[in-house]
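Subject: Protein entry, chain in single-letter code together with its fold tokens

Area: Proteins and the way their chains fold up in space.

Attached in line: The record itself begins immediately under this heading.
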Amino acid sequence: MVRSLWSAATGMNAQQTNVDTIANNLANVNSAGYKAQVAQFKSLLYQTLQTATTTANGDPKPVTSQVGLGVRTAAINQLFSQGSFLASESDTAFAIEGDGFFAVRNANGETNYTRNGDFTWATGGANRIMLTTSDGLPVLDTNGRNITLAGNVITNKITIGSDGTLMYPDANNNPQSLGITIGTFQFRNAAGLERQGDTLYAVTPASGAAINESTNPDVRRSKIVQGYLEGSNVKVADEMVNLIVAQRAYEMNSKAITTSDEMMQQANNLKR
């Protein structure tokens, strides 16, 4: 009877993790560049109740006699499907069409990656302006350097090519390349990236090193679209269905604990 209590308790813990994951998806349904997560589960060890044979010569039984000991969270997978494009009035709103990521330098000087292209121009020292995230983190170019321009540049005249090249109009109002390209990077296993918060990701051994799209001909280059942001890929209807299923599973596990407790009480009352 104690086995059933433990198995049901592991089920409640697993479903709580499932609900936590779903709740985080729903909370970030309007977060630009957010990618949904899905909890995956696996069974725990099995206990053999009887021996493999009941005959003297050791003939195996045709069926096994095992009982499971519950469930645990195996992984929380990340879904990197393309989110819908949301129009933005900002000139520094960029959406990625493809598998690429923007690169930014965090407060510790390390490189993180994001699909959130909600950038802005920030003033810096020496009469320079720099492309940053809304939190002030510098956006990196294809060479891994901060994207900085002269302070006399009028930022609302800057346009971006589909390959991320910064363009500025000349005297005849024809866009000319500034020789700077916003960096986009891919990963062999994007699901292995570690989430850092603020829709930022860090490289891990599971994800592999970042692949620079501008220098690697083996990957298909992403397209950058100015004036749009990539919305989250969370499907609200699916998440609500998953939430109901997780709630019902949690209730069933709690019912199993209640039933096991009542059965133990009846067994204890037999001696009275």
